[in-house]
Amino acid sequence: MGDIKRSSDFHKECYFRIPAGFLAQYSGNPLSEFMVVTHIGYFSKAKYHYCPRKDGINEAVFMYCTEGHGLYSIDGNDNQVVNPGQIIILPPLIPHSYIASDHDPWTIYWMHIKGSIFDSFHKNWSPVLPKSGKSPGRSHAHLVSIPDMTGERIKDIFKQCFSILDMPYQWEDFFYLCQLAATVITLIPRAAKRSVSRLSINGSRGIEAAVSYMKNHLKEAITLEELAASANFSSSYLAQLFREYSSYSPVEYFLRMKIQAAAKDIIFTDLSIREIAEVYGIDDPYYFSRLFKKITGLSPVQYRKNPRGFDIRLDKR
């Protein structure tokens, strides 16, 4: 395990290192080049777990802390605490170190990864800045809290990986392993956005109530005041929460839900554009058409003629 210091105090260990020859044979395959796992494992109550890497390594390091605590440092910055329910991702080729707490050592699921999915993730997702407030440049890490439900899903995925690796290595299993690792990485931004660390429990419940109200009244015209009442919040507070949750105002979020639903009717029904607009509580078909084009980039007529390849998801900018 190289420069990783261990101890018999580890209550449980699960450690897999993909053989170099196997990696060389299959990691360049188009089916796996988007994500390659080189090492993966699980350490429980890992007292004395310590890993200094003065030159970094070629892969990124992913760790999900489920219990206890640890510290990490990257590129000479101060130590940062890792708490239960947090994920830390350390980028490749950057000096770093990490260590379990002496008094309350962490339990972690971890893996070393590389590939195009991670490169895109690392480039585009906002980093956690060091305490100094200085721009982290190339050496930024990602430290994020995730909801318990997402954490349980990640643990289940790791268990699937361990089950695969308990058997003799085969190319089809390796590709599946890489796909599972990619799933873990792609879960993180969405989970972080919806984590209770960003919204209080009361705020999260209010958002859920407002979204549920929207779904139940999708074919009606409702006001911000009605939405706020459904969540037992003031209009201004609900608007603030929605900005944190989705980057949209509540009304804009609701309109996008309408357009997303209306787009299906444009494709799968013979209703006129005016009739579809009225179904979703919009009396002015010209306003409906302008709104539809603003969100999708196409007019309803254009969309009906050629719907393929156009994205109307709520998160489209």
Sequence stretches where pLDDT stays below 50 over 5 or more residues: 1-11, 127-138, 312-317
Summed up, the helix count is: 11
* Distance, first to last CA: 45 Å
Gyration radius, rounded: 24 Å
Word description of this protein:
The chain has 317 residues and is of the alpha+beta class. It folds into two domains: 12-193, Jelly Rolls (Sandwich), CATH 2.60.120.280; 201-305, Arc Repressor Mutant, subunit A (Orthogonal Bundle). The chain has helices at 20-26, 116-124, 148-165, 171-193, 201-216, 224-231, 235-246, 250-268, 273-279, 285-296, 300-305; strands at 12-17, 36-44, 50-53, 60-67, 70-74, 80-82, 86-90, 96-100, 107-114, 142-145. The strands form two sheets. Strands 1-2-9-4-7-10 form a six-stranded antiparallel beta sheet. The chain is elongated.
Describe the structure using short key phrases:
single chain, Jelly Rolls, Arc Repressor Mutant, subunit A, 2 domains, 11 helices, disordered N terminus, disordered C terminus
